[in-house]
Every structure is written in structure tokens, then in C-alpha cells.
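Sample entry (293 residues):
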Amino acid sequence: MANPIRPRRSLLFMPGSNQRAMEKAAELPADGLIFDLEDAVAPEMKKRARAMVAAEVGQGGYGRRELVLRVNALDTDWGEGDLGMASAMRIDAVLLPKVEGAERVRETVARLDRAGAPAELAIWCMIETPRGVLAAAAIAAASSRVAALVMGTSDLTKDLRARDTADRLPLLTSLQLVLLAARAHGLAALDGVHLDLADDTGFAALCAQSRALGFDGKTLIHPKQIAPANAAFAPSGDDIAQARKIIAAHDTALAAGKGIVVVDGRLIENLHVAAAHRTVALAEAIAELETGG
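Predicted structure, serialized as C-alpha cells:
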């Protein structure tokens, strides 16, 4: 599935059983919303939450935000019904929890197809177990519907029996393996949530680390995390100005029949020009989302 440049700096989890939160989400500056029917909903509330999410999304009002539904696993009592509802909703993607192999993706695709889901409905896969990390490349390649890999860092930390350290050193190998799999198959890659809502400094540091690694954005659990995530994963003014400078210099060189261009003492190759175009395109997509969203 084609994966155009789209801002995914901030994807906010919304409990599917919290109607007030879903209503307020229409006013939040998150790039996307993940309506959660899995972890955030108690078993006795699953079916009711499903109906509440369908009603809220059906009313619209979320602008151009990317809308994602995290369903329950297929081997639960609610997974089949969640996928059936997702197939009829006006959403962008279905987020599958704890994906550990390509077969789960193929099974989901088959069920979506049987339910009449539109061809453009994407599948996002949460990678939150050791098996999932080791199978990330196969998962990413399992279907053209797969559009994003999402880290589930809390569950992964538990399963690894790792320490929850500020630098996330115990998770770096897993983060990079999943990122490699996503990029190798042209998918988006989203970092996991940060649970300590009082740790603003730590959250900012994790966003900076995640951006440096190459992730497109972070999944979030509270609206207060949206602004710092948006700032961390957006091109800065200097980034945009430098990208435009590189593009202009390259165009001028081509028009003069030159194959080599130097900007600020640095040799510019095609890879730098491609990165510059992506920076400008992302900045323009963010501006469009924020002005029209």
C-alpha cells in the first residue's frame, strides 16, 4: 500500500469507553487519534465501547486527523466483531495488538476482505513482544495493506525483563530492528508511549531520542504530550530553510549543466536532495493539517 508523506508526529490513544474524551479529541492538535478497544477498555465494556466509538466517528468532526481503531486480538471474544465494525467505519487504519507473525496479518486481511472493507483501509501492527520484534520484517512484508509498525514499549520491557531506564538502552536493539523493518518496506514507524505524565523533561528527551533514531512520531496517552511531540518530530525553521536552499542550488546546477553542487562547503548528492524534498513536503503537510484540520 502506498504510504504518502503524512504527519504522524503525535498519535493519541483514546479510550473507546470514554465518550467525553472522544468528543474533546476533535479539538486537540494531534496528528492522529487511536480509538482503543483493547487495553483501555474493561471486558464488560467491550461491546458498549465498540458502539460508542462507531457513533462518535460516524458523527465526524475530526477534520483531517488520521483515525485509527485499535481492535482486540482475533483470538478473543471481541476481535471478529471489532474488525467487522472497522470495515464499515470512516477510518484510515486498523491497529492490531501484539502482532507476532505474518500469519496474523494475512488472517486479518482475509477477514477485512470478507467484511467488505475498502481497499484503502490500512493495517497498523503493534510490535510489543520479543517474537514480534524478531518477526518485524516478515510482518512488514505480509500485505500491501500494512502501512505502519507501532512500538509497544511497555509490554516489550516487561517481556524482556529489562529495566525501565531513562536512556532506554535495554530497548535500543528492539527499536532499531523494528525501524529497519519498517523502512525496508516503506512503512511508517511510531515509537511507544511514555507513562509518566509528570516527567516532562524525560518525555522531551525520549522524543528527541526517537527522532534521532528515525521514528516518524510517538503514540501518546494524554493531551499534554501532544505539543512537545509535535515540536520534536516536525522540521524546524532552520531545517526547512536549509532544505529549500539545497533544492534551489541543485536546480540551478542542473540548469547550468553541472552535476555537482556545493552548499555551505558541503558536497550535495542526490540523496541529500531527496531528503530535502521530503523535509519540505512534510513541513507543507503539517501546515495543511494545522490550518485545515
